[in-house]
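User: Run a structure prediction on this.
Assistant: Running it now.
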Amino acid sequence: MKKIKNKVSFKLFYNDKFVMFFSVLMAFISWIYVASTTQESVIFTVTDIPINLPELTDGMRYFNGDDMKAEVKISGNALVVTNVTKDDIYITADDVSFITSPGSYTIDLVSKKSGVKTDYSFESSVSPSSVNVFIDHYEEGRVIPITDKISVSSVAPSCYASQTVLSRQTVKISGAESIVNSIAEVDAEYTFQSTLSEQTVVKAPLKFYDASGKIVSSKYITADITEVDATVPILDVRHVAITPKIVNIPDTLQFDNSIVKVEPSTIELAVPKNDNITSVSTSAIDFSQITLDKNTFTVSLEILSAYRNINSVETAEVTFDMSQMAERELTLSSNNFVIQNAGAEQNAAVANKSLTVKIIGPKQRVNILTAASVTALIDMSDKSTITEGYVERPVTLVFRDTFSGCWMEGTYTVNVRITPKKSTPSQPSQTS
């Protein structure tokens, strides 16, 4: 049987990498041994320790301090202190009983052991030894209007920068009560430096101001938005005509527009691009109210809300040239009255014996006009179901062709008496 010899091989010690690893391992083992057996203390600094501030009374709270950190020096056995972490130490306020109202305070800090590792001592006080805190009650969701402070430096020729449209009209602000309540105005601020020629949208930051116009710091408050979209509509500038709206012109009258004068005759408007507007109308003028003495009317302009009245012209003066017109009174009798659209079951007759009306028209025609040239129509369409009684009906005048251009001044009515039609009794049949 072959004998096996046990021999220690030292070939590994000729390998540089093995020698380096072996040296480090032996040094570490030696350090562990020395550190665990020596009685000499070492000093070690534990950093990045969170500061835990105690709760306050009367609903007050801290508005800073959440991210405050501190450090402290500890001493003890090297093997122990080097294994103490920030989780093993608790740093808090020494005393907060003196805080009884909102404000800024300086609070002293103390350190305590909080982990299972307790075989060490605090070598120094906490660094920093104190912190400054701001304390207040919490105000939640105060709603404040946003003021438009968007400024446009210039616009292209024949363009108009209309009122800015903000994507939000209000902002909700929460945080330290005293600071939230000090905010008197919230502005959306932005200034366009370039020349605008079309609608433009920008993001405008919000800024908070107190009653004296000073900026309020947002350090201890939060807002549900910090900016708004601000849209600046760019409109086209147009010069358009002012057209009078005249109502109640008799259907039989061929009205001559040349006798109408409007002052001003045009107005300057800013309108949306591609809008085909050529004129704006006045409020209605009742044609029947025009007389020789009352022939000028001041009326408002009907301008759409989408337009901007650049000249701030709100009214126009409409004048009817009555210099070639004359006025005459005619007395109509039963021969002039014609009832139209009476009901099938009613008899209708004008109760008025006569009716005096005023007529306006060209002088050469009005001067020879007689009652025989006029027909007074009384329409019963909407009273055709009434079988008995009196009703008041408006009168419409119709002139013979030779008196075209004349019209009745004002409005007139007559009383119409209605009686039921008597049916004719049928004859009895003869029996053979």
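The chain has four domains: 1-136, 139-232, 236-320, 325-420.
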